[in-house]
Amino acid sequence: MQTASTDGFDKTITVIMTDGEENSSREWTLQAIRELIKSKEAAGNWTFVFLGANLDAFAQGASLGVPMANAVRYDPANYRGVYASLSKSTNLFSAAPERMAGDFFKGDATGIEKGDDPGIRQKAASHRGVRRNSLDVSN
């Protein structure tokens, strides 16, 4: 397993973005990804952000080990707004003294629904049975 070196960097942001369609990896298992994220976060200067386009975005982010506040659902019809929000949040985090972001998308984020909003979480849970796309990273 090879990972990027962050020697000499104060902060590292890793953004995972998926359209919700099938993903199949022959190199990484779900457990290996969870362990990698956990070990990098333990270093104290890694932040992971998950952007998913479907109703299971919050569950998918959580299954990878991404904190709920950093797992969001985005509107695929509003890519411009989504990337503008991602850029704004990245710039704010880069300028902040914190080495990790427990809540990456602060304030209003165009085209993005946050997973830590109780109403959004309840709405996502109620729709899980309607359409389910899964992240398949098994061998």
Give structural notes.
The protein has 139 residues and is α/β, with parallel strands linked by helices. Helices cover 35% and strands 18% of the residues. It has four helices and six strands. It has helices at residues 30-42, 57-64, 79-95, 118-127, and strands at residues 12-18, 23-24, 46-52, 71-74, 112-114, 135-136. The protein has a four-stranded mixed beta sheet, sandwiched between helices. A two-stranded parallel ribbon has the order 2-6.
Describe the secondary-structure layout.
Blueprint: E1 12-18, E2 23-24, H1 30-42, E3 46-52, H2 57-64, E4 71-74, H3 79-95, E5 112-114, H4 118-127, E6 135-136
Parallel strand pairs: 1-3, 2-6, 3-4
Antiparallel strand pairs: 4-5
